[in-house]
Amino acid sequence: MRNNHFESFLMFIFFVSLSMKTAIAQNSTTIPVNVGVILNLDVGFDKMVLSCIKMSISDFYSVHGDRYKTRLVLAARNSRQDVVGAAAAGLDLIKNVEVEAILGPPTSMQANFVIDMGAKAQVPIISFTASSPSLSSLRSPFFFQATQNDATQVKAIRDIVKAFRWREVVPVYVDNEFGGGIIPFLTDALQAVDVRVPYRSAISSTATDDELGEELYKLMAMQTRVFIVHMSPSLGSRLFIKADEVGMMGPGCVWIITDGLADFWSSMNSSVVDSMQGALGVQPYVPKTKELTSFRNRFKRKFVHDNPNIVDADLNVYGLWAYDAITALAMAVEKAGTTNLGFQKPNVSSNSTDLENFGLSLSGLNLLQALSDTSFKGLSGNFSFVNGQLKPSPYEIINVNGDGARGIGFWTAENGLIRKLNTPTNNTTSTYSTSNSSLAPIMWPGETTYIPKGWEIPTNGKRLRIGVPVDSDFAEFVKVRKDPTTNSSIVEGYCIDVFEAAVKLLPYALPFDYFPFELPDGRSAGTYNDLVYQVYLGNYDAVVGDTTIRLNRSNYVDFTLPYTESGVSMVVPVKDINNKNAWIFLKPLTWDLWFACFCFFVFIGFVIWVLEHRINEEFRGPFFFQVGTSFWFSFSTMVFAPRERLVSNLARFVIVIWCFVVLILTQSYTASLTSLLTVQKLQPTVTDVKELIRTGAYVGYLQGSFVLGLLKNLGFDESKLLVYRTLEEWDALFTKGSGNGGIAAAFDEVPYINLFLAKYCSKYTTVEPTFKTDGFGFVFPKDSPLVSDVSRAILGVTEGETMKKIEEEWFGKEASCPDPGTSLSSKSLGIESFWGLFLITGGVSVLALIIYLVVFIHEQWDVITSPDYKSLRQRAVALFWNFYNRDFSAHTIRRNEVNDQQIQLNETVVGEPSPSAYSVQTEFLGEQDRVSSENDDRNSNDQQQLQETLLNSPAIQNHERPRVTEIMQD
Fold first, then answer.
1. DSSP E strands, 777-861
2. Whose CA is closest to 480, among 466, 490, 494, 495?
3. Which pTM value belongs to this model?
4. Can you say how many angstroms the Cα of residue 892 is from the centroid of all Cα atoms in its chain?
5. DSSP type of residue 684
6. For residue range 623-649, what is the model confidence (pLDDT) as tens digits?
7. Number of helices (H), then strands (E), in the chain
8. What CA–CA distances, in Å, run from 795 to 165, 792, 807?
9. Spatial separation of the C-alpha atoms in residues 501 and 803, rounded to whole Å
10. How would you class 10 by CB atoms within 10 Å of its CB: exposed for 0-12, middle for 13-18, buried for 19 or more?
11. Which region ranges are annotated with the description Disordered (predicted)?
């Protein structure tokens, strides 16, 4: 048994020896590839990076050594924190060491010159710390930015600013290549979401604490309270300590740090972290994996072993990018091959400079292509180059709180702000969010949870300088007077009270002082446009007064919401027309409506005559009698029921419709006339602007008002425009009249008109049209954060009782005058209001005539076809006379004739008129019983005698006997 164990041990030793010999044989066949590294080896951070690079080479070849023939050989150089030192190190590595690639240098300024040398020698330059966007690979294809480009993180910062609706931001950055490179991209990103950058705070990298304090005090004197800090950790730490000392880390301030600081927060000492409490930061997100945790533990042991003098060394994302960058280079070198290693010597003269004396890398193009195609999952996440730049990764948003930084959310290019990164179960979400609700609760500076508004009035800065007009023509709006004791200016008026009432509603104190816009002698220093322009020039912080919101002014300043009525109207004198016009009864209707009514009365009379004259004795007789009866009947429907009775159903139908039309006409006339006589007591003397222009009348306007330009645009001759300054001058011009050096109308803004009418309400009124304007507003600089707050405060004033009290104080209580916003009018009723009724009446009447004509032709068809008439003229004459004469076949005519004959016989036999002679002509013979009852003294023989006499009368014996017989039989 012992022999067996011994033999097994010998076999193990044999195989180990064989493996070692094989490994030695393999190592002897590997090809070294020189790679340069440029770092600031005097700084602990760069030492951390160098340790990561060495560990990466060791880890990579321990795993892939049996498959890779190439081996990276590091040649490290110290840039000594200097641009020239970095350039010298790069020149040495390319010319003397002939490296195939260079990692570094660490800063953007140092990398700038080294990149140009790499491009000339076709040596790839890979930087994992130089993040300036100005070092774009588009400028040099041999530069690979193995770090997140600063142009990427500005998008995350932009969305944070947008999420909290901050309108102004001040970037605070180091004044070098690293700091200035991000500013154009940051400014463009902020302007894309309407965020202003009113000031850029560029701080020298060598600034002293006093210089830092001076710059911070300058920031404190500004309104903006949102600061974006982009600088190195050493300068940034000093800045925050100083900001905490001067009181700029309290409530209301917002500090956002870029990854240049956020990636180093864990390595900062406790005093710096304490001064940064409440700051927000963005840093590239590194997934937490088992490999990363294992590497962190090994790194600490390795770094402490190599650098025993450095305590509490911390690994950050730059070390991980360095680790992954050397891994990518090792893979690319193997992929590029070893056939073209080396440099092609330059063909230069002996007296050439060192910059012209280094060669050209033969493997540069192959290595360039291999690096571009390299992709793997490293410690920092997915690692690959896109156009020479590291593929963007999500950013984590942190909030410095307590002893460290707390993650409050993430930002991705696809989803914007999100609380958690998408998991495989919900990775289909594609909504882009810029809402602050997507972030966890934040502890802001000053240990407050309230979202800062991003600006405030500086308490230790200047008070607001508010300009006011001194030459306001209406003292009720703005009045400036001198205090006789102190000789100081006292500003008061309606506009002043509204502004001060609005300021009281602001959630913060707003200190200000009024400054009259005047010359040394007390006269106005210019027009209202000049006053507004002073805000644009920065001489005033605001303007309070009767300043109208105008488009041309808004190009230079911003206005609050208007606090007065808007518009420009025309004011004219009024005249009393009640009971002073003998023909006022004609005014309710226009002349075309009067004419239309007359025509229809005539037409209806004609229609009724046509339908009734053949069958109704009321419409028969001499020609002029028939005409008079017809028109009398038609016109009498307007006031009372006609005496004449209608027997035709067609005529009755026409009259029913016509009476309805007459009812509406008379009621409308009555209402309009009543209004003229009782309600409308005053009438404007002028109602049309075009009439003023046509007649060349003089009109007035307020001195210095923009209304002058409006009147010119309307077409008024400038020589016809007169100016006034006060209410009294305004009234005096009206009193003189247009022909005597005065005016016929005046144009002004509604607030001034209301004040004028409050004093002269019985003499003047406003008429249309009203030209639109936006009323009075307060003036502030462009994009001033005060505009929105003061506008909301104005709404609080106008919607409450405060505005009513202010108006009563300066304008008095509302008088019982006509509403100045209502335009008086004396328009009469026109035909356009009744043409539908006339159309219906005319249609019904024409239809009745057509029906009557058809029936008449049908009845007279035997006349039309009779052979007795030889010509068409004879037939027409016969038809006309048949149409004009009675229709004896109508039952109304037959009964009337018999009744007339009976009355005549009664008068002949009895010798006295029968009472029935006074009865209506259309009574029927069947009512004879009533006649007999009225003549009880007559016997039955009289009735027999009456009948015989009627039958033997000459008229009946000629041609009407059969009809009478029929009547008698009936």
1. 779-781
2. 490
3. 0.60
4. 79
5. E
6. 777 777 777 777 777 776 676 777 788
7. 34, 31
8. 21, 5, 15
9. 9
10. exposed
11. 928-970
